[in-house]
Amino acid sequence: MSASKVTEISTSTDEYEFTPTQSWFAINIPYWKSLFPLVASGEPRVLEIGSWEGRSAVFLLTTLCAQRGEIVCIDHVDLMHTHEGRERHRKLTQNLARTGRPFRMLPQFSVPALYALLKEEMLKDAGAGFDWIYVDGSHRADDTLLDAELAWRLAREGCIFIFDDYNWPEQPVESIEHPRRGIDAFLALHAGEYERLSENPEQYQVVLKKTCKMRIGFLLE
Ligand SMILES: C[S@@+](CC[C@H](N)C(=O)[O-])C[C@H]1O[C@@H](n2cnc3c(N)ncnc32)[C@H](O)[C@@H]1O
């Protein structure tokens, strides 16, 4: 998609219900916009793992997917067992709906949700896979590695694949409670299958462009 095709419907967040103190995403906007011209599809399919109230998802729907395309969001929202989880689900789905763009929200933990998506995508005759994937769910290294492994199988060749929190300051980077070791393990295992667009390891996000074909890797009986 060329940069000129990306139309901004709205840069205002007034029309959305976001908690002002939970704006972790805005800092990424200029860099993400510079990546849009790399998305080849005129109908970008976006997958997000970890959506909270939908700031990053709303941004992608109203910019990258402003004319065509869609998003699938995965977030456990406490499996709707708590008031807080139900409230987040309400805000998230309401915010996504306000964009007027197509979305789907899977209120599950990422592993079962990604597995369900893999099965669905496998059954498609055409159009399987995603062009932009944002891994921003659990901060644990092992969860991040699992999320990335499953999501990578859903990534089309050329997919922009983004990890958040590579330099998260809340835990030591070597801790299992920090995503860093999971991201590093993924990067080592899949070396040769991507171009690393974020060259500086000091960057908060790791951004890849997938250079190999999509491979779901298993068959349904
Ligand atoms: C940092 S927030 C996402 C922020 C959002 N992408 C944004 O930029 O506004 C992380 C989200 O991941 C969700 N999450 C954490 N672990 C998860 C898991 N294992 N499966 C699904 N969602 C998870 C949390 O519920 C939370 O909403």
Describe the structure.
The protein is of the alpha/beta class and 221 residues long. It has a single domain, classed as Vaccinia Virus protein VP39 (Rossmann fold), CATH 3.40.50. Helix content is 30%, strand content 17%. It is built from 6 helices and 7 strands. It has helices at 29-35, 55-62, 83-98, 110-122, 141-152, 180-189, and strands at 45-49, 70-74, 103-106, 130-135, 155-163, 194-196, 206-210. Strands 3-2-1-4-5-7-6 form a 7-stranded mixed β-sheet, sandwiched between helices. It binds S-adenosylmethionine (SAM). S-adenosylmethionine binds next to α2.
User: Strand portion, in percent?
Assistant: 15-25%
Instruction: Return the CATH architecture.
Output: 3-Layer(aba) Sandwich
Q: Compute the separation of the termini in Å.
A: 37 Å
**Cα Rg:** 16 Å
Low-confidence stretches: 1-11
Let me know the CATH homologous superfamily: Vaccinia Virus protein VP39
Percent of residues in helices comes to 25-40%
Instruction: Classify the secondary structure makeup into a structural class.
Output: alpha/beta
**Count of helical segments?**
6
Strands, count: 7
Strand and helix order:
HEHEHEHEHEHEE
The hetero molecules present are:
S-adenosylmethionine
- In the CATH hierarchy, the third-tier topology is known as Rossmann fold
